[in-house]
Design a protein that fits this description.
Layout lengths: L3 H11 L9 E4 L4 E3 L13 E4 L2 H6 L3 E2 L19 H11 L8 H8 L3 H12 L3 H19 L4 H7 L5 H12 L3 H6 L11 E5 L6 H11 L5 E4 L2 E8 L2 E9 L3 E7 L6 H11 L6 H8 L3 H9 L11 H10 L5 H15 L21 H4 L11 H15 L11 H9 L6 H10 L12 H5 L11 H8 L6 H10 L7
Parallel strand pairs: 2-4
Antiparallel strand pairs: 1-2, 1-3, 5-9, 6-7, 7-8, 8-9
Helix pairs in contact: 3-6, 14-15, 14-17, 14-19, 18-19
């Protein structure tokens, strides 16, 4: 069996795009770190070192390559490490938990000491939590410099630097140039809108399939998924607006309407989860293809993704509405709730008629809502009200720092929420790649054969043990064989 370094060396020499973003190459003769697909002349093997993360390469003293631009590499899934604490920590850092540089507070949210957290990050990622956060900010800012006409002040705020001075100092130290000097050197044909940024992904990625999933479940008034684009209303930092996402081949293009640059990094990170852009298709394929049944489905959907959710509370309400009814019926009921209790906003979208125009109601609004008048049965109405109370008083949160098992137990404590709902929410809202709603009818029906009794949940759960840690991806494959299933 080849070592990681041998695999990385082969990928580097062949410029294998499948490994783009999975490791970085430090070139000792130049002091630069590159993506494995860098088009520059290939350095000699004795002059390179391999790093799992860009932050690790930076900590080792290398600066980013201006030619292959490491900041444009597809992301690495937050569960790539072997430590669950590291996995949860990466998600929090991606959400801006270290923008103020407080590792102690991050460690406290994760339930460990700051010393232990640093030790885990160094072991699994080769870099400290602060280094990971700093590299994330730096890469995000570099993309905004290259892709937008935003002012340097706005970029500094959007990337979480807090001040223009910190922003300038970081770029001088890393690139040996100021941000303005880097912008002068960019391609002459860059004319992107000030509020348009690209979200790179790793192929294969089937945008039409992803859009189709959301189209079936788009809450009327809140979401729009048609004609090649996905739009939804959002509220961040007191601002209300609409996010607009479209495919541009190899990347998604994000446009913001009514949302300022201060919320930009939060929007980007959340949407990467919504569209599962950092999934590693090769890792998923390696495990799931061992099952003959799933192997056939992987041929039809080689880049299977698990659609996430913009808001955990909204997704949970939707999951409750979807209990034992069709996807279409649940979508209709969700639209009624949004229409009655959601706040209307006015953000016109050029070229789109009938787009989203209201926010999904907050937990405080639904904890007393008379949902029965909307055609929702009493038991489910009570469950939604109980969920609203639990989220409002802090008993339930969708914080990425929490242990998935603890979250599941807390959610199950609400009357009317069972295993299916808890697993479905964990899969899409918490982005747990191993969550698996084994009792789902669509999953069971996928194995139906003539003259054979339908598979029981316990039997499916037993079979799915071989699919760990990618059981959520197996669920999406199986739902694909039963169109419209999956809540």
């Amino acid at each position: 069996m080849m070592s990681n370094n041998e695999i990385f060396e082969r990928a580097r020499l062949s410029r294998d795009a499948r490994f783009d973003g999975k490791f970085f190459v430090g070139v000792r003769t130049t002091g630069i770190y590159c993506r494995p697909i860098c088009p520059a002349n290939t350095p000699k093997s004795e002059n390179v070192s391999f790093y799992r993360t860009a932050a690790a390469a930076s900590e080792a003293g290398f600066r980013p390559c201006l030619r292959c631009r490491p900041e444009c590499a597809p992301g690495t899934p937050a569960w790539a490490g072997t430590s669950t604490t590291v996995q949860r920590g990466l998600r929090l850092i991606a959400e801006g938990a270290l923008d103020e540089g407080n590792v102690e507070m991050l460690a406290d949210r994760l339930g460990v000491t700051s010393r232990h957290l640093r030790r885990l990050f160094t072991k699994h990622l080769g870099a400290s939590p602060l280094a990971v956060a700093h590299t994330q900010r730096l890469h995000f800012a570099k993309n905004l410099i290259d892709q937008t006409q935003l002012s340097m002040h706005d970029i500094a705020i959007a990337a979480g630097f807090g001040s223009a001075r910190r922003f300038n100092d970081a770029f001088r130290k890393t690139y040996g140039r100021t941000p303005r000097e880097l912008r002068k050197g960019r391609d002459a044909d860059v004319t992107a809108s000030a509020l348009t940024v690209s979200l790179p992904y790793r192929d294969p990625f089937d945008w039409d399939r992803m859009l189709g999933f959301f189209a079936l479940r788009a809450t009327p008034g809140v979401e729009y998924a048609a004609n090649g684009c996905y739009l939804r209303t959002v509220e961040l930092g007191g601002e209300r607006g609409v996010v607009d996402v479209r495919d541009a081949g190899g990347k998604l293009l994000l446009r913001l309407h009514g949302i300022g640059t201060g919320s930009l990094i939060a929007v980007v990170q959340r949407l990467r989860g919504v569209f599962d852009l950092d999934a590693s298709a090769s890792d998923v394929h390696e495990v799931l293809a061992k099952d003959v049944f799933l192997r056939r489905m992987l041929k039809k959907n080689p880049g299977v993704r698990v659609p996430g959710a913009w808001d955990g509370f909204e997704l949970t309400v939707r999951a409750i509405l979807g209990q034992q009814v069709s996807v279409k019926a649940a979508t209709t009921l969700a639209g009624r709730i949004a229409g009655r209790y959601g706040e209307k906003i006015d953000v016109p979208i050029q070229g789109v008629s009938g787009g989203p125009d209201r926010l999904f109601p907050k937990p405080e609004k639904l904890m007393r809502a008379r949902l029965e008048s909307l055609g929702i049965i009493g038991s489910r109405s009570s469950t939604i009200r109980a969920l609203g109370r639990a989220v409002s008083n802090g008993a339930i949160s969708f914080d990425a720092a929490q242990d998935p098992d603890d979250f599941r137990r807390t959610l199950l404590s609400i009357k009317g929420i069972g295993d299916w709902t808890a697993d479905y929410v964990a899969m899409r809202a918490l982005k747990n790649p191993d969550a698996f709603p084994a009792s789902d009818l669509g999953l069971l029906r996928a194995f139906d054969e003539p003259q054979r009794a339908r598979l029981r949940p316990a039997e499916l759960k037993s079979r799915a043990e071989a699919w760990r840690p990618w059981r959520a991806y197996a669920a999406l494959l199986l739902w694909g064989s039963d169109d419209g299933a999956g809540g």
